[in-house]
Amino acid sequence: MTGPRRVPSLGSIQGDPGHLVVEVAPVSASFVSAAPRSGHIDFGSIQGRIVMRRPVSRRVSAAVAGLAAVGLLTACSSEEPGTDDGGETSEPSASQVEEIVVATAETPWLASYEQMANLYQEKTGVTVTLQVFPFDGLLTQQANAAQNGSNAFDVFQMNEQWVGQFYDNGWVQPLEEVDPDFEWDPNLIEFDGVGRWDADARTTSMDGVPYALPMNGNIHEFMYRRDLYDQLGLEVPTTWEEVIANGKAGLAAGIENGYVLRGKTPTYDFSALLFSLDGDWFPGEQDGDWTPGADTPEFRSALEQFKALAEIGPDAPQTVAQAEATSLMQGGSVLQATLVSAVAAPLENEGSSTVAGKIGYAVLPGQTPVSGTWTVGVPAGLPDERAQAAYDFITWLTSQEAMQKWAEVGGITTRTDIESDRPELQVIIDSADMIRGGLRYTFAPLMLEVTDPAIGEYLAGTMSLDETITRIQDGLTRVVEEAGYGS
């Protein structure tokens, strides 16, 4: 029995540093002429239950507020409501909601997600249709559906860097509006409030209103060559100074790279080191003070230490993103690295990795791992019956029963009460109370346009420490002012 045939991708998946970047190979399915959603194109199904759909039409849309893109393409089609005997449209009752449409992305864990959707259909009789887009295309399609009020999707899937835009713009509705009795499950990891929003402060907060639930729990993990550590008599580090010392010992022993960091997209990795030194991007944000924290002793020390890590790694660190870092680890030339939980899968793939079975996984040195989590929420404006059906799915997906299965089929879990022999999942559990949030600001894309190139140039040696700090401080001041945040 075969799984669904996937829609051919238009190119490489691009994403935030917490999202595993993969190349999508073309598939054999041929393109079919666009058709209305009510007469959708079936590209196959898992056990005949999960329908994979291609976006059926596109048009130019106005730029989405807060996004870096100038123009966006949108899928315009939406489910045609039913009609009553008088010819007027009517929405289905709760008992008539037999299908929910979930927007999702081409990710390394898509096949696992398909299995979970299939399991939900078996348990409830509700078909879960996963409408799959490239990473950036997912943001585009959901943002336009929200702005147009098309109700094209029953569930929005949000990467961590997008949640501020979705919450602030009211594109997803508070969970308590669907279920007034909603309470956060104490065994569901909060990821530093990734599912909550403080509308007054315009930031995520552990005290904020719940809007979404974490469904795929990528965080920073320390990954190291267990076999080489044993040979060299090294201890698993708990501080960044110990990481650097271990890396230098590896270089002295003839290992090609003592460490690898992602200097092409450095903001995510740098954040973990910054937080461990008690620094922050905006130290006063919870109090409404959006003065950037780049011109501080903590930020300066973090940059210096980040460069020290780069210096024990490959040349031209500013050219290394997650795909390159993963490949270097797979090839066996690196002693240790900071990577996200999802990278464990390619590292342990015996068909493509020379280090499968040789990697150790540990809590991040400094004990401030940053999350790169995916969340799911209920789009605003859905009819009550569809909103309830969506809520039922996302609360089931993040339940203990479902997350236990999610672990078994290769997903990255978001709960502390699952059991698994996968060490990267145990690291998530052990790190649950240490996790710091990634960039969730409404202005995150514009912020990265400042921080990524500045830090990259500093690592490359083409910009001094003082110049880097000045560029980031001034650049972020401009970004927050233009975004309407007070200082």
Largest sheet: 3 strands, antiparallel
* Structural class estimated from helices and strands: alpha+beta
Mean pLDDT: 84
- Give the number of helices: 15
Order of helices and strands: EEEEEHEHEHHEEEEHHHHHEHEEHHHHH
Q: Tell me the number of structural domains.
A: 2
Q: What do we call the CATH topology of the largest domain?
A: D-Maltodextrin-Binding Protein, domain 2
Helix content: 25-40%
Strand order of the largest sheet: 7-14-10
Which regions have little confidence, pLDDT < 50, spanning 5+ residues?
Answer: 1-17, 19-94
Morphology call: globular
How far is it from the N-terminal to the C-terminal residue, by CA? 58 Å
| CATH architecture descriptor of the largest domain | 3-Layer(aba) Sandwich
Text of the CATH class of the largest domain: Alpha Beta
Percent strand: 5-15%
Radius of gyration: 23 Å
Structure overview:
Helix 14 packs antiparallel against helix 15. This protein has 15 helices and 14 strands. Helices cover 34% and strands 12% of the residues. By secondary structure, the protein is α+β, with helices and mostly antiparallel strands. The termini are far apart. A hairpin with a 5-residue loop joins strand 3 and strand 4. The strands form six sheets. Strands 7-14-10 form a three-stranded antiparallel sheet. A three-stranded antiparallel sheet has the order 12-11-13. A two-stranded antiparallel sheet has the order 1-2. The N terminus is likely disordered. The protein folds into two domains: 205 residues, Periplasmic binding protein-like II (D-Maltodextrin-Binding Protein, domain 2, 3-Layer(aba) Sandwich), CATH 3.40.190; 191 residues, Periplasmic binding protein-like II (D-Maltodextrin-Binding Protein, domain 2, 3-Layer(aba) Sandwich), CATH 3.40.190.10. The protein is globular.
